[in-house]
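Re: that backbone. Tokens:
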């Protein structure tokens, strides 16, 4: 029984560290995405974006994504 606990606790520690890392990275990516969307909105008058500006924004994001790849 003592040998089992010597194996189980380190494995549980590794799994816990992996879970914490996964959630930290996920939240960081969500935060980055929300800030990027906030910057892209850039509409000072508080109105809605026209479909034309939405198309430009989508095209710019696609170009940035293609440039990374």
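Recovered sequence:
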């Amino acid at each position: 029984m003592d040998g089992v606990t010597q194996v189980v606790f380190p494995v549980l520690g590794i799994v816990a560290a992996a879970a914490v890392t996964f959630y930290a990275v996920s939240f960081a990516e969500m935060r980055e995405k929300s800030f990027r969307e906030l910057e892209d909105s850039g509409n000072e008058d508080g109105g809605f974006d026209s479909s034309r500006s939405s198309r430009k924004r989508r095209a710019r994001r696609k170009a940035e994504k293609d440039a990374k790849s």
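The mean pLDDT is 82. The helical segments are 2-41, 51-68.
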